[in-house]
Amino acid sequence: xxxxxxxxxxxxxxxxxxxxxxxxxxxxxxxxxxxxxxxxxxxxxxxxxxxxxxxxxxxxxxxxxxxxxxxxxxxxxxxxxxxxxxxxxxxxxxxxxxxxxxxxxxxxxxxxxxxxxxxxxxxxxxxxxxxxxxxxxxxxxxxxxxxxxxxxxxxxxxxxxxxxxxxxxxxxxxxxxxxxxxxxxxxxxxxxxxxxxxxxxxxxxxxxxxxxxxxxxxxxxxxxxxxxxxxxxxxxxxxxxxxxxxxxxxxxxxxxxxxxxxxxxxxxxxxxxxxxxxxxxxxxxxxxxxxxxxxxxxxxxxxxxxxxxxxxxxxxxxxxxxxxxxxxxxxxxxxxxxxxxxxxxxxxxxxxxxxxxxxxxxxxxxxxxxxxxxxxxxxxxxxxxxxxxx
Length: 390
Prior knowledge:
The protein is of the alpha/beta class. It has three domains: about 5-235, Aminopeptidase, CATH 3.40.630.10; about 245-310, CATH 2.40.50; about 315-380, no CATH class. The chain is built from twelve helices and 18 strands. The strands form three sheets. An eleven-stranded mixed β-sheet has the order 1-3-2-4-7-5-6-8-14-13-10. Strands 15-16-18-17 form a four-stranded antiparallel β-sheet, with helices on one face. The longest helix has 19 residues, at about 105-125. The two termini are about 15 Å apart. Mean pLDDT is about 90; it is low at about 1-10.
């Protein structure tokens, strides 16, 4: 049975700020501090709410800015027992909803956040926009991560920062991936390095631009909109390419002595066979040309680094066309591919067929998440119809 007493315990602390505008929609939900060592989003959220109140900025929709891992934020740690941004899947959600057993500290945080989201869905109107504010352990330009749905692409492309697709293929249980399954726009924003004051400013700029692009706030209400867009964000993103995708992930094994080579900046170009890290005293080298992405320079976490490559405009345009025409149905006509009987957004694929077609073909049609189960690959589509949150 769901424990509502736990959820109400930190309710006033959970919501940093809430603005109910002149119109009933849209509704913007911003998460900050999902990792307790990433406080920039919390500070930025407080600054935005204060500016709205002090300057009497006219608001058209609804805004909720939510603190994530309150316990970890107070202790200045990434998480207590489990990573709060790796446990958002059906199995864990069912556990916290139905079980009367005690949970660990981070699962208690998850329960409170889940019930807060559910309450917002009950009391507010869509469209709903979910934004999750983060920072990284290495120096970086601001960037956005998304699950590869067309509505995510459309909204994220309005911001003057790089966009990385497909992170859901490599991470299990992020909050935004769970929310994306209900068809809503869900963007992750990485503002900069931990504890850098510039990261707070970048988060503020991102929030203000999101409020303008979602039509909650009119451009005329913000005198410094150009400053937010061009000076704080665009000026730092000198790379001419807009969209990237993850091609490789280095996972740190249990008890592995991993140490990233110092000095890497996020999005920095790397070459095949270049030395990137040390593992148990041996060199870890790049398996391909590309760009280093989110190299690990902190104690917690098992994602050592990723390698990303740019996505061509031609590929993006082609995938947009084939998805809008719903041509993904033709994949089911191929030998070895069938629709999952329990999930209309999933294709069950024979491994031989999957190897023949390559994952790039499935990406083109919008199937990003790939899971091997019962000797078959399960490719999961990210474009969804809006459904009830549960």
